[in-house]
Amino acid sequence: MLPLHAAGFTTAFGAHGIAANLGGFSDDAVTSLLVLGGLLALYDGAEVVLKPVFGTLADRIGAKPLLVGGLVAFSAASALYVVAGSPGWLWAARLGQGAAASAFSPAASALVARLNPPAKHGRAFGSYGFSKSLGYTLGPLLGGVLVWAGGLGLLFLVLAVLAAAVAVWSALAVPAVPPLPKRRQTLLDLARRLADRSFLAPTSALAAATAALSVGVGFLPVSGAAAGLGTVATGAAVSVLAATAAVVQPYAGRALDAGRLTTGTGLAVGLGVTAAGLFAAMLSGLTGVLVAAALIGAGTGLITPLGFAALASATPTERLGQTMGAAELGRELGDAGGPLLVAGVASALTLAYGYAALALVTAAGALLACAGVRGERRAARR
User: Fold this and answer.
1) Tens-digit pLDDT profile for residues 41-77
2) Burial group, residue 27, by CB count within 10 angstroms (0-12, 13-18, 19+)
3) CA dihedral 273, 275, 277, 283 (to 10 degrees)
4) Count of alpha carbons within 13 Å of 264, Cβ hemisphere only?
5) Helices 197-226 & 320-348 angle (0-180, nearest 10)
6) Which residue, among 178, 210, 193, has the nearest Cα to 304 in the 3D structure?
């Protein structure tokens, strides 16, 4: 499992480490906000298009080849910018990183499910989520230190070495998990499975959690700056969000495996806590920012391992890659849709109303999850 944790850390560290430092330290490559937006969208756009494709391919040829191959490709894409040294090659390197992450990220999720019995899925996904959250937390900080010390090229060099090392480690330590035989699946069969509540409910919760996380990381510093807070205070708030999410995930996974928490109840509570955090972001000053960061982090930390464990338990083992790729697509859409919703409402009204809009959407998801839990309980009593 440790190489899988390292792979999760690599994709999170690479995504946030570069994204957080493109605008402030790379004047030679990022000449306008439009260019910055394009570079940020390039990585996520590649993931949106390719994750379902690579997830399905993992079921066909096995998840380990895609894990190792994706990490090698990520290393090569990172090294491309180091060797070329031209700002124009930054676009190619960023696109290559996004495409490579699209291969090894769903493969790693599928391997987490395949290498652990269903009774330990909560703990397994909780630990894996902790490693990814650690990458999200340390990426902006360590990435900033690296860029300050040696420019953007040094950050890409570290990512190239890191991905190559994890690729070798995975090739040596992760057991080969052969693809399982499966019956023929038509497009109609796929559509029915992806439209089933057992897929839609956890995927929607994961998308909402990712949307709130993205909004918290992107907009809480804006709220802090508007309240007169310095960059240290707002940076600490974002760190509180990521650190809380990292700490909560293993505990949530253990509670699920021990039977102290069900996926339905956990997702409902997680969505409710996340919505409360978004409402708290409407409060002015440091208190509002910190409370919002802590609640959003706790809510997303609760949702993430439970959502993936629910998907793994409801999916035929031979289709795990396909399901994880489709679920990752839902998360990417939440990652893009949350900030767009908040920014759109904020541009017409104020940022507080933007937070409220996403909070209402998240709260509606919590109510639907509660209704689903009550329905399951009534069906069980019958």
Assistant:
1) 677 777 777 777 777 777 777 788 888 999 999 999 9
2) exposed
3) -140
4) 14
5) 40
6) 210
pLDDT digits (tens, 9 = 90+) for 329-376: 777 778 777 877 888 888 888 888 888 999 998 888 888 777 655 555
Site of tokens 């409360």? 276
| The residue to which tokens 């990814």 are assigned | 132
Write the pLDDT tens digit of every residue in 278-312.
999 888 777 888 888 899 989 998 888 888 888 87
**Contact yes or no for 264/356 (Cβ under 8 A):** no
**Helix residue spans in 26-88 (DSSP H):** 33-61, 63-84
Which two three-digit tokens encode residue 139?
Answer: 């990426």
Task: Specify the amino acid at residue 52.
Answer: P
Exposure on the CB side of residue 219, measured as CA atoms within 13 A:
31
The per-residue pLDDT for range 140-192, each reduced to its tens digit, is 778 778 877 887 888 889 999 999 999 999 999 988 877 654 555 444 544 55
Check if the beta carbon of residue 3 is closer than 8 Å to that of residue 170.
Answer: yes
Place of tokens 């039977």: 259
